[in-house]
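Give me structure tokens for this 788-residue protein.
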Amino acid sequence: MSEETLRVLEYDKIVRLLAGHTVTEPGYARVQALQPLEDRHQVADALAEVAEMGTLFEDMGRPPLGGCRDLQPALRHLHADGSWLPAEDLLAVLSSLEAAGACRTYFDGKQAAPLLGEQAEGLVACNGLQREIRDSIGQHGEILDSASFELGDLRQSARQLRGRIRRKLEDMLHAEAFSGVFQDSIVTERNGRYVVPVRADHRGRIKGLIHDESASGQTLFMEPNSVLEWNNELQALNRAEQREEERILRRLSARVREQRMVLEQNQALLARFDLRAAAARFGKLCGAAIPQLADQPVIDLRGARHPLLMVTADGRVDPAIAVPVDLKLGRDRQVLVISGPNTGGKSVALKTIGLLVLMVRSGLPIPCLSDSCIFLFPSVQADIGDEQSIEQHLSTFSGHLTRLRRIIEEAGPETLVLLDELGTGTDPAEGGALAMAVLDHLRATGVRTVATTHLNLIKGYAATQAGVENAAVEFDPRTLQPTYRLNYGIPGASQAFAIARRLGMPTEVMQRAENYLGDGEKAGLELMEQINARQHALEQELSEARKLRERAAQERARRKKLLDEFEAQRQGLLEKARRKGDQLVRDAERKIKELLRQARETGQQVPEQAKLVSEVRELRQDLPKGQPVRQSRGRAPKTVKVGELLRIPTLRADGEVVRVQGNDVEMTVHGKKLRLPMASLEAYRPRRFASRKAGGAVRGKVQREGFNPRLMLVGKRVDEALPLLERFLDDALLQNAGELEIVHGTGEGILRKVVREFLAEHREVAGFHAAAIGQGGDNVTLVQVRKL
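Here you go.
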């Protein structure tokens, strides 16, 4: 891509905006060097990575990139023999390694970001090097005593020696023998040696070396002979400490030199992640989407906006201030000619097409609707703006011709050419003829061209030539203001007179201008204005029709909701009546069971036992005849909503949807949260939703359908579980069930213990034991009951 094309399409401004969303120096440099990609697969991968980053933003926030530092200067410095890094550079290495480790953890195992996760596998944390730097250098760049045993010993000896020197000098300061000798009772340092302030007129009373004097000359800073050897020894310790610190820095620098390739790879990956994160952030602010990539040279951008028009004066991004426009260049149309008034948006539409193509080629989302489609043109050529140059002796027309000649020489099949104000700058007839010849040549070469013009000759060319289409910038005839939208299939009027009137041109001048205009030109302009006005009216009618259709759809939805609510109320009343009858039968069952139990305890025979049981069963069979039709289970749902009840076949239980994430559904089942794939669930037909009690609590009870030999007690308290267990066993006896399954979970084992103690004392339980490992192990108890 030529630098000239990037300049006239203002690609550099997009790069600067994008760079403002980076958080690292390498990421900033990576964005500043951004260029359109050549390979289609690279573009597709870049767009997919931006989409993955946007998904992770919503779930986890931005990746932890902030610690990444630019290590290239330090690593280049290590190429020299005998070189070593200062502590500040080693801290930068440590920070970058920590960022690499944190980012690898951030991307690890994320199913929503497979491409980024694969890239992150190349990050190496170098934990050993991290420990060495962390143990040797403090947060402020100081070398720690723990960096080596020798350094710790040297610093300990120096601290002890400093203490002895200070105590010796402080004794002198307070000694009666030296009363009046010292200017102040303080011990200070000069040139790394401890000294005391001596009055100049008492210099003879202290034997020692003078290292400095005050500005007035009244105070001398002397090193007494009594501490001379100790100061010499302290200087030797300081020099030894410096040599040991340098040795430590050389050792750590050597370790960094060994990991130079790893550090460079880490920095490149972190810069890549920063670029993708900046693109995702900028795309979200712009309301951008990733369009479909076409296999043929077409452009179908719906609701497209120029990114730079969204930026406010204070630097904020506001998509609402840019008018969306549909930009189309179809398979059967090689040339699009845009015409209309000045300030109507012709050049903006032209630049929008070119800039959005460049952005997609750079792996960036663009501000348009998600169902847009765009071809990755290998080359984009543009002639936009005034190329007048006094230095090169070029007029406006000559500048355009120079650019056109270069475009004709370089353009080939699958090239996108953008031509602004085609045919202007010279005589309209000659300029129009030359422009049509250029368009003919570009069409024959297989180029896709978008051009703007005011010339009626070129508008007529677009109306009569196959493969060429007119598009008019919409102009509101009532307000005399452009709407910045495009109407395809019709040419646009320049509206020069209307704009001149709006800008206050004198009426006399306007009348004279109309007299100079020929009758044919007047008729053509009036016809074009009528066409544009009719197109504008049709657009308004179409907009009203869309609103009416949406309103009708909302009304249908509201009516369906009312019918569903009515049906739910009817089903609720029927179910309430059935439950009341069911309760009466259960009471009868309980009484008969008690009689049977008493008969067995006394050893009496009950001849009517079989008859009673049979009558009860007949009563239960008769009861469901008045029962409403049960809601049938369906196949796996395609879409679910929060609050919907779904069947979990593996658990033989219903669960309530609390969250939907992609193809996974998070549900609550008996107070426990589960995450299951949507394909493993069953939806009810019609759909069912959990009812809400006052205060917003979710009703935990779901209607039973017949007797289920499996009882779920997971998540229940003991006082809740025992009544359920007792009723479960009663129902099992009445249903003459032989083997039962009780799922109580493990937890702390309290519920399991209580359940098994209850079973051990129950007369009708023949035996029980833990399930096999494949059936749940100690989480499940299998029960055998006596049959009637």
